[in-house]
Amino acid sequence: MISLKALGKNPFKTLLIFSSITIAVMAIFLISSVSQGVIGMYSKMIKTDGDIIITQKGISDTFFSNVDIALMQKIDALQDVASSYAMIVGASPIGHIPIAGIYGTTQNHMSHYKLIKGKYPKEGEVILGANLAKQFATVSVNIGSKSFGISGVFSSEIGFEDGGAVMNIEDAGKLFNRSASFILVTSDSPNSTDDIVKKIALLDDEIEVKTTQNFVKEYNQFKIIENSSLVVSTLAFAMGLMGIASVMSMIVNSRKEEFGIMRALGKSRLFIIKNLFFETLIMSVSAYLFAFLLSLGILAMLPHIEMLHGYVNGTLSLSTALYVFASTLFMALFGSLIPAWIASKTDPILLINQGSA
Amino acid sequence: MIKAANISHFYGAEQVLFDLSFEIKSGEFLFLSGESGSGKSTLLSILSTLLKPSNGELLIDGESVEKIKNIDYFRQSKIGFVFQFHYLINYLNIYENIALAALEDKKQNIEKILEELGILELSSRYPNEISGGQRQRVALARALVNEPKIIFADEPTGSLDSKNSQIVYSLLAEAVKRGTTVVVASHDMQIENYATQIIRLKDGQIL
Ligand SMILES: Nc1ncnc2c1ncn2[C@@H]1O[C@H](COP(=O)(O)OP(=O)(O)OP(=O)(O)O)[C@@H](O)[C@H]1O
Ligand SMILES: [Mg+2]
Are residues A329 and A300 in the same domain? Predict the structure, then answer.
């Protein structure tokens, strides 16, 4: 096959196109999948443990929300409410680690964190996520300005939790100076959820009550991550694609002489376009596959990179993969076939002269 | 066989061929001579359908070139071209370069022609691995492979010594004997010994 020979005889050019396609495709994959992963992880954390979430009115970020924990008693008394618990989420330096997630929870939610060592925390104690625990061999640790005893270690498949610390909500309240970040409520049956939302909303006008599903959908942080990753990955994508198209058209222009010779020998325009099509196809498909595998490899490694404390996770969706594949192919072909088509219209001898000049 | 009628050519605003009319009969060995820059390559490109003249008409076997339906097949089967610079494809070896030009049913000729030109043992080398004179012979082999009715050669002996030039001319002369029409553009006056017709160009005009 003549396309393979052309690729093989120009290893440097081939490598250049190959790597520019690979890098462009990888950038898109990594950026979009890391942001998808972070969103997925956070929403899983909230969704699994309740049907309704109560936050402070007008505060879009759970880190800054403050609701009165006393509300729990009134909520538990409502019809169709199965249970409720409160949490404080915050971030603080822990020992020598500059920043980690701190979760303060009411006793009835403590069992959510699966102990693999030791006991659940009493007042003045914490349990550490398995990933964070690797960093500490001590019996106590400084969080903020206080020293906490380490009573045990838990494990969680959610990266945020596994890299964080859990304590009683009263301790967290003192640390972050609030009553509760949010209250999560479980209803007896899914049908009654909307009803309970309305009733809770009447209890206090300082609060915002939503189903966790709606909350996750509307949560500002997710939107910011989603939008910014969309912008960044679109830019990376556009740059990558433009790179691909321009490298391809440069290559075509540098081969005008060759195309002119072929035309002079009686090869049809179709023959030239067809060969270039296969060259481009082979190159972009293999570069895409290479980038895809590399990205999968990097994504699989992410949770194990110490530096990231398991905070960063990535998932690659099939639709992203297909979309990137289609556009890579399109741009590569667009970049090579258009100039080839234009070139093949030129008189063969002029093409040869342009090429060798 | 080839009829040029009032052919003129411009590169941009510069006119390099001036209203040329002449006829080349079948089986002729035409020598196109003239100084450097006189327009030999340009005229040869026009006669071989590789360049469209700015004005005038080219008829091959009585048919206007503009009207030929499948110009690609026409070029491949009827015309052989030896360029002023050999113009081989650098990523194909010698054999493949010739095979690229060959029609399916002419592929069996390749080895015979390489043998005749004394370059058979170079078959699997690449164009940048052989000498300039050898490249010129490969280019000639490529032009001969389809046993075309007309061969155009632009300075085919440009990079050959006089002995090798003689070989090329006699090969062309043999093709003429078999009924092929040959048109050669060159500075080399040796060709006069083989030519049956001579056209002298000066500043784009026939002397
Ligand atoms: N592609 C081009 N664009 C512009 N001018 C050109 C081009 N090709 C040739 N010319 C000009 O046209 C004139 C004729 O050129 P041509 O190549 O036909 O001459 P030639 O007789 O073949 O010369 P040589 O013996 O040096 O090969 C020259 O003045 C040259 O500068
Ligand atoms: Mg010339």
Answer: yes
- What DSSP line would sit under B110-160, residue for residue? HHHHHHHTT-GGGTTS-GGGS-HHHHHHHHHHHHHTT--SEEEEESTTTT-
**Disruptive mutation site among B87, B88, B96, B124 for chain A (greatest number of A CBs within 10 Å):** B87
Which of B45, B91, B96 comes nearest A10 by C-beta?
B91
- The answer to whether residues A243 and A272 belong to one domain is yes
**Chain centroid to CA B134: how far?**
17
Q: Which one of B72, B81, B82 makes the best mutation probe of the A interface by having the most chain A beta carbons within 10 Å?
A: B72
- Identify the domain boundary among A205, A231, A265: A205
Q: Which residue of B has its CA nearest to A8?
A: B91
Contact of B207 with chain A, judged by CB distance below 8 Å, is answered with: no
SS3 state at A44: helix
ipTM of the complex: 0.86
State whether A9 and A63 are in the same domain. Answer: no
Mean pLDDT, all residues of chain A: 84
- At A306, the pLDDT band (50, 70, 90 cuts) reads low
B38: Cβ below 6 Å to ligand 1? yes
Residue A28: what pLDDT? 78
Above 70 in pLDDT, residue A311? no
| Nearest ligand to the CA atom of B38 | 1
The response to whether residue B16 sits with its C-beta less than 6 Å from ligand 1 reads yes
Enumerate domains of chain B plus CATH numbers: 25-54+71-206 (3.40.50.300)
Determine the structural domain holding residue A316 and report its residue range.
2-42+222-356
Q: Widest CA span of chain B, in angstroms?
A: 48
Alpha carbon distance B39, B201 (integer Å): 7
pLDDT at A310 exceeding the cut of 60? no
pLDDT tens string B100-113: 999 989 899 899 98
